[in-house]
Specification:
The chain has five helices and four strands; from the N terminus they run βββααααβα. It has 98 residues and is α+β, with helices and mostly antiparallel strands. A hairpin with a 4-residue loop joins β1 (2-5) and β2. The protein is flat.
Amino acid sequence: MAYYWPQYGVAIEVDDDPYLLPFDEEAFPDTAVYHVTTDVICDPESFSALAHHIARIHDIELPHDFDELIYSRRLMLHMLFGADPSTFARVYTTKDAA
């Protein structure tokens, strides 16, 4: 599974989920794909460090309350349900739909 922000050319792929296909890097060659494990996604400090690293490299301004969101389930809910579809897209594979 990958979380993909096309306007920034950035994707975060969770590599250790055996049921999901990888991000199609050949289809999106200009996308920087950051490969992480579920441990990184589930640990607020690790995920915050990753997000700040990506934001610095790609000149992305994180929301002012990002660090508060990161320590709650609200961030994932925001990413999945609250974000404007033009700023965030979840990339599904055929295995996701099954």
